[in-house]
Amino acid sequence: MKNYYDVLRIKRNSSFKEIRTAFLNLSKIYHPDKNKSLDAQAKFVKINEAYSVLGKAETRRQYDNILINNLKTDVNNLKKRQVEYYDTERYNYHDPRQYYYHVYGQNHQQNVKHNRVIKPDFVRKLFFIYCCSCILLAVGSAFYAGYVQRKAKHRSQVLHLMAEKWKKQITLLGTEKLMEMKRAGTLKGFSYREIEKELLEKQKKE
């Protein structure tokens, strides 16, 4: 599955200027008014989603953390941390303590008796707790990623509706007339908040 860096066709260490440049270039290519292909709309929405997250320092940092804390990485690390064991048959030691005495000397024999032995039940419980922590982290990351994606999709819808309204008004009144109305403060219903409110009311009716 592509991440937002792949969507904008940039590297993860790209600057904010490079991110914005990539966003503008791809928006021109896949804008529904210019590109009539079937998947242009979907790509245009995805491009806006990616920019809404990567275009801001805070949301970009949070998204990078999600990529880093991927569950697969945790599982791979868990496999590497499996408990080591001695190959006693290799040295003909049927009792692991015999191998220990051979390596460290008989002087440790009395001390070994007093050492605490980690029981298998404790290891299993520790393993279970670790797995639960990994699952909770994965679920939390997935939930947050979904939230970020929904928010980005909403922003994309607002921007698309805003572009449509501007296009219609430019066709009806012309660019110069609209600019005059904007400078005079008589142009209403074109701000981001107004468009967002209109979109929410429309969605409630649906």
TrEMBL record:
Domain J, chain residue ranges per copy: 3-67
One Pfam family here: DnaJ
Annotated TM spans: 126-147
Keyword line: Membrane, Transmembrane, Transmembrane helix
Gene3D superfamilies linked: DnaJ domain
Protein name: J domain-containing protein
Origin species: Polyplax serrata
